[in-house]
Amino acid sequence: MSKVYKKNLPPKIIAILFSLLLWVYVMSAINPRITSDISNISIQLINLDEIRQQGLVIVGEPAYNVRVRLNGRRDEVQRISREQIVAKVDLKGYRVGTNNIPVEVFVDGQVDVDFTPKFITVELEEVVRRQKEVDIIIEGNPSEGYVVGQLEFKPTLVWVEGPESVVNQVNKVIGRLELENETENVVQSLALKAVTSRGVEVQNVNVQTQFADVVLTIDQLKKIEIVPKVTFNAAPGYIIKNTYLEPESIFVKGQGNLLANLVSVNTETRVINNVTENMQVAVPLELPDGITVFDTDMVKANVIVDRIVEKRYDYSKEEIVINNIQSGLVVDANSLPDSIEVKLVAGESTIQSIDGGGLRVILDVAGLQVGNHNVRPVVNVQNNLEKEIKEIVINPQSINIRITSKGTD
């Protein structure tokens, strides 16, 4: 047998070498080694439930990916799909803070595997749970002639849960109620979301009560008069010139059935004595239940006060005005007194207004014929100041006049 094997040995060796070279050539030309890069392979987080049970959570919602490079024969590389590449990190045993965790990549195939990154950074934080106030934000407006009334909602406090640094950003929890020309009360369930102090929504927190039940009354507007029940009494030596309210009417709001028969409202009853100067007093209104003021915070009662003064005026006979004398008759000037004194008692500002010539002394002789007559002089006060004068005294109180025909001495 050995002779058989040894027979023609050199040609045999050459044939084997030639076959090997041919195989290498065929493999290189037909099935060469290639490299393939596959990006964005998602990294699986192992033992995520375990760290949650420890009260930890990954900060944010990071997307962990790895880039994998495969090197091998073309048929082996092309046989591998994305789904056959598994990338993992194991979170077991890691604690609060920044953790660099090694990445493991598994590929089912006869290929060389490389990948990047080799580590990922995972930020772990404690999960906290805190109560936050609920606020309902009203946007839009009801129909014309209607206004927003009382707002009621529940819950008013909710629990917010999440990473401590994220929960710390939450200022409150809000729901938004949108209005558009409503005339009836609104009942809705509103979705709640956590926001910062600037109103920006906070992501990655769990608002454990997701909805708020809201009831908003839509009130009707009505304008009504105010009836003053405030009495000002002047101190001795002073006079009340005027009193008035600011404003004299107001808009109130309430449900339509409450406003139907409401035409006026009283101020609170008050008596203010010994007033010596102008003053303004805020007075509450006696509003029926269910009715509130819409356009003003407070009604103010005003009083104008004047110091009482006395002044005398002398009028000569030439300044006396004769009214209603019959045609052809005259009053004998010699029968008139040389002067008539008028004493006024009134507020100081009223006297100042009269000083400019606001008085006239009048003798009314309507219907009187020729002869002697006893006539009471009257004082006419111009500019409608009579109501501001406390007392008028004329001296003399009556005058004995003589009426003659014209041309008779």
TrEMBL record:
Which InterPro entries does the entry mention? c-di-AMP_regulator (IPR053154), YbbR (IPR012505)
Source domain of life: Bacteria
Enumerate the Pfam families for this protein.
Answer: YbbR
Query: By its UniProt entry, which PANTHER family does this protein fall under?
Result: CDAA REGULATORY PROTEIN CDAR (PTHR37804:SF1)
Protein name per UniProt: YbbR domain-containing protein
